[in-house]
Specification:
By secondary structure, this protein is an alpha/beta fold. Helices cover 38% and strands 13% of the residues. It folds into 2 domains: 236 residues, 3-Layer(aba) Sandwich (Aspartate Aminotransferase, domain 2); 122 residues, Aspartate Aminotransferase, domain 1. It has 13 helices and 13 strands.
């Protein structure tokens, strides 16, 4: 039996395969240079406006408002909805930003368990968690796999509460043929360095509601009506008309994101092609220790992540895969097990599915630049380590 690299054996590959590599070419560089030469580098420039227009057309929404990251997008979404108290339902298995959004508007995050197969918020648990103080649900499309939005929207409508999609990972994914992030009151996206479309840091909110969009434009820019002033030039000054924050995206970053967005169909196609190959080859192993990613029949995922589950010591599996030259990471710690959420009275065992996901899930590399050789080496490493 071949000796594992973690035990001193030879690794599958010596040059480590990274988790993600941005899909850049010279066009991003040229766009940044053009922007710098224009001398308009702050925000509300031509590149940013073009990106907002292209996102509206691609997603089929009336309004896209760029912001500096998805954490800000989620915060801004709750601000424009007027949420200042009560509780907001968020999945227990998610990045911290989802839970921070209600905290930042003086509401409380109320955690909800997730599905074991997709790690998305569990619909039945949503129904059990809603009370008279619930203001909003924030479903997270984990790994780009859409949540069961028809059921979530039905529950929200019956209880007269808002839905804000955390679609940070889901740009390009579809739910029953409709784009993720467009299926609720507001959708929030991320252009972080590890996302499918990236400019390093950036984000956007989208909505079909004209009044919410108007509030978002004002509140993202420190509560000013500067945008109207710039467009109409109807006064010699702009006014402070609302509470707000500085959530503006610089024109330099918008220049990168714009060129990235022009390639979204190609990037998504390459990820889907690579994921299909990985699934096909991993299935051939027929290893009962490995659970492959679930894709439900209503979903067309963008494969932001490629998460598998390992029946065994997941920490050891991750370390062993890394030793073989394959980046393999355990993802989120469930929110209820973190220091911040102790003050809300949560304890170990409260969300069993989230804990099961945490104790079994490992992310493998997934990006458009993966070669067949890369993916074959990933599969070889899984076969070797999970024997």
């Amino acid at each position: 039996m071949e000796k594992l690299a973690i035990d001193g054996g030879e690794p599958i590959i010596k040059q480590k395969i990274p988790m993600v590599v941005p899909y850049f070419d010279e066009k991003e560089i040229d766009s940044v240079v053009e922007t710098i030469k224009s001398t308009w580098i702050s925000s509300n420039g031509k590149k940013g406006k073009e990106l907002e227009e292209k996102m509206c057309k691609y997603l089929g929404v009336n309004h896209t408002i760029l912001v500096n990251n998805c954490t800000s997008a989620l915060h801004l979404a709750l601000m424009i909805l007027g949420i200042k108290s009560g509780n907001v339902l968020v999945p227990d298995y998610t990045f911290t930003s989802t839970g921070l959004a209600p905290i930042l508007v003086n509401a409380s995050p109320k955690l909800v368990d997730v599905e074991y197969d997709t790690a998305n918020i569990e619909v039945n648990q949503i129904e059990r968690s809603i009370d008279s103080n619930t203001k909003c649900i924030i479903p997270v499309h984990y790994a780009g796999h859409p949540c069961e939005m028809d059921s979530i929207n039905r529950i929200a409508n019956e209880n007269e509460i808002f839905v804000v999609e955390d679609a940070a990972q889901a740009l390009g994914s579809e739910y029953k043929g409709r784009k993720a992030g467009t299926l609720s009151d507001i959708g929030c996206f991320s252009f972080h360095a590890v996302k499918n479309i990236t400019c390093g840091e950036g984000g956007a909110i989208v909505t079909n509601d004209d009044k919410l969009a108007e509030k978002a434009v004002i509140m993202r820019d420190k509560g000013t009506n500067k945008a109207a002033f710039n467009i109409h030039q109807n006064t010699g000054f702009y006014d402070y008309v609302s509470e707000g924050h500085n959530f503006m995206l610089s024109e330099i970053l918008a220049a990168v994101a714009l060129e990235q967005f022009k390639k979204i169909d190609k990037i998504t196609e390459l990820r889907r092609k690579n994921a299909d190959y990985m699934v096909k080859e991993l299935k051939k192993l027929n290893n009962p220790k490995i659970i492959l990613p679930t894709v439900k029949n209503y979903a067309n995922t963008n494969w932001h992540l490629f998460p598998i589950k390992f029946k065994g010591d997941v920490n050891w599996f991750s370390k062993a895969m890394n030793a073989e030259g394959i980046t393999a990471n355990i993802h989120y710690v469930p929110l209820h097990l973190t220091t911040l959420y102790k003050k809300y009275g949560y304890k170990e065992g409260d969300f069993p599915n989230a804990e099961r996901v945490f104790n079994s899930m490992v992310r493998l590399p997934m990006h458009p630049g993966l070669t067949k050789e890369d993916m074959d080496n990933i599969v070889k490493a899984v076969e070797k380590v999970a024997r």
